[in-house]
Amino acid sequence: MTREVFAPGRVTILGDHTDYAGGSSLAIALDLGTTARFEASDAGVLSVTSEQSPNPVVLQAHDLSVPQHDSFARMIAGLVLEMTQSGPFPSGELHLRSSLPLGAGLSSSASLLVACALALGVDLPPLEFAMLVQRCESHAGQEVGLLDPLSIVLGQASTGVHFNFADLSWSLAPINHAGIFTVVHSGVTRSLATSDYAIRRSQCQDAAQLIGPLGSATLSDVATIDNTILRRRARHVVTETQRVSACADALEGGDLTLAGALMNESHASLRDDFDVSCREVNQLVDSLNSQQGVYGVRMTGAGFGGCVVVLSDEVDLDLTPGTASWRVRPSSGARVTSNKVFGEPR
Asked: DSSP characters for 315-335?
């Protein structure tokens, strides 16, 4: 049996660092992503190769050990460990290729894991699938939320997905406008495992211990927090959750001016209250916001570098030569693209 699948990346339009805090997010699946091709065998060995990794990962049914310094291998081993707790060992060859830049805030690791799981035959409802991917990232030392895998699994063409992480619900958010989304790389790459991501998550947990779940808290609640840092972290989650709903309504109604203003407010919150931006990203946001036809710009993803997302008219952005950028559109979620049984005509 040969199976080929595609798992897109994700761009957050609004609502970063809110998923693990019980807030809201608005995201789209990209037309960039990971393609995985699996050829099953009965050799009792899984060999995983990737165009973006020089070293193959080789796992045996009786030995899932991998080098601890290799996060890619640890994620794959974590996936196989999860799968074999309730099913057979996935023996065969798995090859990966991706059009997503690594460490750019576009969910390259979640895209890779969703593609691997789907290619190896994982068949679960969306939330259970996303939780599986979340656990696999944990095997590599990355404690992440559910925004990325859910966006990748649930994405649909021409719509965003509006998530409420307080009750783990979601709805489609139509995007009815003639504007353009462009993703622009700041030139700064990062790894969640080596960034302050875990610290921010812990700070949100500490704030929630004081005022209750941040996704349902009010600014009046936030004002009661004495610790300045925790108060700022909580304020971001509360105000960002409010902005997400307003932005979803604005994009559905075609109000690019309001949507862009909310994106700008979101970036300021991530920069000032959550401290996850950096000088290069802020300079890029300011430069893009000064250009004709641009409505709003914000960092997208966990921050500490990576990409920004721009909402604009149909204009050519003035970028420094060599700057990586992609015009993106809401695209379909993870899917099987080819599924052949041995012996079928080719």
From this structure: ------TT--EEEE-----SE
